[in-house]
Amino acid sequence: MGVTPKIAPSMLSSDFANLASEAHRMLNYGADWLHMDIMVPIFHLFLCRHFVSNLTMGAPVIESLRKHTKAYLDCHLMVTNPLDYVEPFGKAGASGFTFHIETSKDNWKELIENIKSLGMRPGVAIKPGTSVEAVYPLVEAETPVEMVLVMTVEPGFGGQKFMPETMDKVRILRKKYPALDIEVDGGLGPSTIDMAALAGANCIVAGSSVFGAPEPAQVISLLRNSVEKAQLTY
Which residue of the set 32, 74, 181, 185 is catalytic? Predict the structure, then answer.
């Protein structure tokens, strides 16, 4: 396989008052990426409800953090209008820009092109209730996404329980696209990593299971070892 394990602690679970030091701490513990959850409560047109209800970090936070690290900043945008955020995040120093297919069905081609033009790596995310087939055109496009993020909880809050039924999507994607980066996010930790790794996920987002552990480095190592071991069975 052409994919490598990438462990991405979710900075949503970090101490925001010490974001730079938290980032350095995770990298020193062996993290590959830093996962940045971008949630902005903007109303769905006609639906009168939020995509998510929490407000977290925006481009200014990414810009500030970029001054303190050269790490890969894996930005996951849970917003209804991701196209509006491409330029600000590109200028701020985001490394990856992952948008949700649920809010981008009509403009994903333009999104991908804009993301790449600003030097970021495009990715697409799907919620637990979204069919995996929805991302096939984006992976197979002339200008494709380079990662698919399978949400293993409903987006919006940290610390939720892992949804094992979402692993069917990961298995399907891994079989169909052996060289694709497949990321999982939500409820990942020592008790659930083997399910995700065996299904074919290689990019692992973990928040509370890492930041809340007495020895975060051991958890990061365990997550990586599980992915490496699982890849031997593919």
Answer: 185
